[in-house]
Amino acid sequence: MAAIKIDPDWVSGYAKQVALGAETLSSASGVLNTAPLTAESFGSLGRTVRIAESYGRAAETLRGQLTRAVESLEAAAHSLGEIADNHRVSDEDSVQTINRSGQA
Fold first, then answer.
1. 92 CB-near residues (< 8 Å, 6+ apart)
2. Please, are residues 13 and 67 in contact by the beta-carbon 8 Å criterion?
3. What is the reported pLDDT for 1?
4. CA proximity to 22, closest of 77, 64, 82
5. Cα gap 96→17, rounded to integer Å
6. pLDDT at 46 over 80
7. What own/partner pairs with CB < 8 Å and gap ≥ 24 does 87-91 have?
8. Is the confidence at residue 75, as pLDDT, over 80?
9. pLDDT tens digits for 5-18?
10. Three-state DSSP class for residue 21
């Protein structure tokens, strides 16, 4: 059976990178929400071919996906942080147990 090795510091660093990605996407989402597409965004041609409604629906779908992506990355970052903390505590407990037993 192969052993799985976890480096808590690496996992913790990765969690921070994932959190940074979530923060970046969240900022982008904020910009999109401050300047939503309107019928005027596409001018008279857009009104004539009724493209504004199609692009508006597509933009709304993409905004929803972006919001879910931010939520997913935030949850992943939180979970990865917990995993790193749990392994760090487990490693520290194992070291203390070994030291107490005199096997170090």
1. none
2. no
3. 58
4. 77
5. 31
6. no
7. 87/6, 87/8, 87/11, 88/8, 88/12, 91/8
8. yes
9. 889 999 999 999 99
10. helix
* Alpha-carbon torsion (58, 59, 61, 62), positive or negative: positive
DSSP state at residue 30: H
How far is Cα 88 from Cα 96, in angstroms, rounded to an integer? 12
CA distance 2 to 11: 20
Higher pLDDT, 97 or 17: 17
Q: Which range scores top for mean pLDDT: 40-44, 57-61, 67-71?
A: 67-71
With beta carbons less than 8 A apart as the criterion, state whether 91 and 9 touch.
Answer: no
> SS in 3 state form for 49-99?
HCHHHHHHHHHHHHHHHHHHHHHHHHHHHHHHHHHHHHHHHHHHHHHHHHH
2 vs 13: CA distance, rounded Å? 25
